Amino acid sequence: MTTVRLPLFPLNSVLFPGLVLPLNVFEERYRAMMRELLKTPEDEPRRFAVVAIRDGHEVAPTAPGMPDPTALPQRGPTAGFGTDPVKAFHKVGCIADAATIRERTDGSFEVLATGTTRVKLLSVEASGPFLTAELEPLEEEPGDEAAPLAEGVLRSFRQYQKRLAGARERSLATGADLPDEPGVVSYLVAAAMMLDTPAKQRLLQAPDTASRLRDELKLLRSETAIIRNLPSLPASELTRGPMSLN
């Protein structure tokens, strides 16, 4: 089994291969991570792993809170993730390649990364200024009938987009060709659908592309039917954005 150890960036969202991830990095543990990544030569990938948080907080509390208003907030790389952080995270994540890391005058960072490869989380190390993890890369198997499933998912996704545009009372942007490679389709649709983190996580860790596409087909039909029967969607759902506040 081939493994790799990388810096670990837990988020309240799921990153898929091929998808762009903008980050606004202001916590010291993640600033330290970005400073370390900047030591990597520009012609080499600046990689870190993103995992979705199962139980914990993306941003650690910075002031005393409830129920004890005198309790001091946690500090350090595990703040908000408990005494055994590996239990706080989902077990399948995605490697991110940081194409841009810009330091601001206040010491925070603006980061633009892209998901590359799915990985399985094996262990978490918290002895340094930020979390690192031992990870096992996961192969993406096509599965049975991935190509025809991708065609069906694309048709259903276009209907979903139309219904969603109608619920938002805005026109649907056209002119952009959708991909037809099954693996790319499965990740693009998984990222674009309005699903909660557990649902997206299930799609990320699907055993193969065909299984992911089958699940997406069911979800698209269900979500499209829901949108069709609702007079409007909650504004909070329609304005959810991909930007992480770290």
TrEMBL record:
Family matches, as InterPro entries: Lon_prtase_N, Lon_prtase_N_sf, PUA-like_sf
GO BP field: proteolysis
Domain Lon N-terminal: 6-224
Molecular-function GO term, any one: peptidase activity
Protein's UniProt keywords contain ATP-binding: no
Top-rank lineage group of the source organism: Bacteria
Keyword Disulfide bond: no
SMART domains: LON (SM00464)
Keywords: Hydrolase, Protease
Name used for this protein in its record: ATP-dependent protease
Organism: Streptomyces variegatus
Origin organism lineage: Bacteria, Bacillati, Actinomycetota, Actinomycetes, Kitasatosporales
